[in-house]
Amino acid sequence: MIESLFTEPWWMYAGVFFAGMGAYIISVIAGGGGSLIMIPVMNFMVGSKAVAPIINLGDMIGRPSRLIIFWKDIRWDVVQWYAPAAVTGVLLAGWLFTRVEADWFQVIIGVFLVSTVFQYRFGKKERTFEMKKWYWLPLGVGVATISTIVGGLGPVLNPFYLNAGILKEEMIATKTANSFFMGAVQIGTYTFIGALYGDLWVFGIILGLGATAGNLIGKKLLSFMTDETFRKYVLGVMVISGVYMILSKVGVL
Length: 253
What we know:
By secondary structure, the protein is mainly alpha-helical. The chain has helices at about 10-30, 35-45, 50-70, 75-95, 105-120, 135-150, 160-165, 170-190, 200-220, 225-250. The N and C termini lie far apart (about 40 Å).
């Protein structure tokens, strides 16, 4: 019975675990990007249509450990605006999942991410605009909708956290809390529409275990970083993520 679930060579499962661990170490110390790092890995292994369900399942499994580790740093004043809006966005995405082409979303978001390094003057500038609390409401709907379809947009929210003065542990903790309820609805949506099944569950669970290990290691590394170093890492991951998203959609990668 159990053996029937593992239909791929063992090295594929091992590869997902260790790739997930590395991706989520980076995700912790650079404010996100773990999901985006995993997109080409999972695309190579299972094909593009299964990427979003597997990555979001892996994210969901890794979140409880991250919530426990960073619980005291959660900014609940942000969560109360973002989380309900994100759930709405996931429900909207469930209807759109099989009806829209996501390529142009990724190009636009990629350009936005690359532009952030200039907006923040390569990490020298702390903020670029005033981030008001109600801004999290439309952000929740928009980002949740697109990430459910595409599979990983963590870094796209980082400029908004930076402008709200939310750094390091607070950023990781608040992003995780914001994503927790959204992730639960995402998994339910994928299952309902038949996008998450069979061996995809196995890949997602293994990715989640790798993410959990990465969270523990990343937490330790984050404690040694200054705010300035963290901000530069955040910008670096945003730019790299943006370049990848653009190049992958224009056929270069």
